[in-house]
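note to self: dont lose this again. the chain is below, predicted strucutre after it. 128 aa total, dont forget to put it in the shared folder this time
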Amino acid sequence: METMKTTKFVATLWVCEWYGHDNDTWSKTVKEIIGKVWQDMAEKVFWDTGIYVSAWVTDSNMVYSQNWGCPEWWEKVAEISWTRNPEFCKDVEKWKQAVIDVLKLSKDELKQTTSQVEFSDVDMVYIK
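---
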């Protein structure tokens, strides 16, 4: 078993365009909406950079002060994450920039004012 040193990202994206909403009901889940946007924006970045940023998208909730507009039962968000596979993308800095580019495009497509991403060093075993 060969362990590789690599990098993981975790990011968050929202669906609602404004604060003070009541988590409107959509015909799709948050992860379906954000997953499709991420897929489309990752394709754009791929054509510019040659790096495709795959992602694992899960439904989640963001909790913040109701005085700042948080809905009573929290804001529906998606958590997006993935681990860089060094066999497919050797340059960690280019991969990080591609992640940031996809996140920025997705944020703008979803009409969000902010987002954030965390990068961390991890050990990975790639099983073939």
